[in-house]
Fold this sequence. Notes:
This protein has 113 residues and is mainly β. The chain has a single domain (1-113), classed as Cadherins (Immunoglobulin-like, Sandwich). Helices cover 0% and strands 37% of the residues. It contains no helices and six strands. β3 (37-41) and β4 form a beta hairpin.
Amino acid sequence: MENITINTALLYLTVSDCDTGDNGYVTVELICSNSIIELEKVNNNTFILITKINFDREQKSSYSFSLYIYDHGKPNNSLKKTFDLYLIDINDCFPYFDNPINYAFIIDEDNHK
């Protein structure tokens, strides 16, 4: 998940309501405190969550967002669900020495330890 590019599809979401008319028409809204993802509507029942940033686990390892889903009946029925997105780390950091100076070692010739 780490280092995926912007505009990558994270999730395809299909919603439905068994009712007819306005009672069966469903709206989905993304509730997100930052602009990490975007919800795009494909058709009346299908949506895609798209990345809007390059995710880097070394900067932040998880994100949260919510989806608010409701029908258009009177009164309407609704559901709010919060999701946690945890980034899987990839091995993209190279090992390094904390001290950039040269290191020297002295070993006694007859040291049997």
